[in-house]
Amino acid sequence: MKAKRLTTILLFIAALGLGAFVIYENQSQQNQNERQIQEYLNEGTEQGGNGTTSIQLGVEAPDFSLPVYEGEADMMSLSQHRGDFVIINLWASWCKPCTDEIPHFIQFYEEYEEDNVEILGVNMTSTESNHEVIYRFLEDFPINYPVLLDEDGQVYDDYRVYGLPMTFFIDPDGYIANSVMGYVSYDRLVSMYDSVVEEYEGR
User: Fold this and answer.
1) Can you tell me whether residue 74 is helix, strand or coil?
2) Rounded to 5 degrees, what are φ and ψ at 148?
3) Burial degree of 84 (CB within 10 A; 0-12, 13-18, 19+)
4) Where is the Thioredoxin domain (predicted)?
5) Same domain, 71 and 166
6) What is the arithmetic mean of pLDDT over 163-187?
7) Residue-level pLDDT at 76
């Protein structure tokens, strides 16, 4: 009886030890992940950006020419919008923050369509499971601005994107004026756009 009780106690102690080890390992991994994230953000800042992407603000935006989903033209390039303010929103159908923010871009475009601004919604097609997923999403979502398909990952690579959604603000001279990684609300979108316009017109 005593031997059985002793065995039970030893097993209980071993279980406690194992549990403590697992907690320690999980905490260590979490701390390591947080350190890596902070190092990445610091690196982005040192490179002259805002910590969201390694492409620098103030540089000329890499040009691209991509297929258009159900547009008047088969292809569309960034350079054909030179002279306009351009907002490039990089998104994917599997990215919930991307799909959550799209209504804000739709609202913005409805209200600012007469202004000197264009929105290009660039789908990160190379990250999607297949084209059918994108088409089904776009059929159900009334997006009122051009949607381009980055099938070969050109924009993803050229703009050095590390996360989605990602939004770039391009000034009329074709330079990257601002950028943000992550969900953008309507109010923030308006605020950032107004700031870019004010800075550009104040030169």
Assistant:
1) coil
2) -110, 150
3) middle
4) 55-198
5) yes
6) 97
7) 97
Question: Can you tell me the mean pLDDT for 49-60?
Answer: 70
| DSSP annotation string for 125-179 | GGGSS-HHHHHHHHHHS---S-EEE-TTSHHHHHTT--SSSEEEEE-TTSBEEEE
pLDDT digit string (tens) for 16-39? 554 544 344 444 444 443 443 344
* 105, two tokens: 């871009």
DSSP strand pairing (85-91 vs 75-77): unpaired
Q: What is the pTM of this model?
A: 0.74
Q: Do the domain assignments include residue 161?
A: yes
Give the domain extent around 23.
1-46
Instruction: Give the whole-angstrom CA distance, residue 20 versus residue 190.
Output: 49
What pLDDT, on a 0 to 100 scale, did the predictor assign at position 151? 96
| Distances in whole angstroms, Cα of residue 133 to Cα of each of 41, 136, 145, 182 | 32, 5, 19, 22
Name the token pair of 186.
């309507």
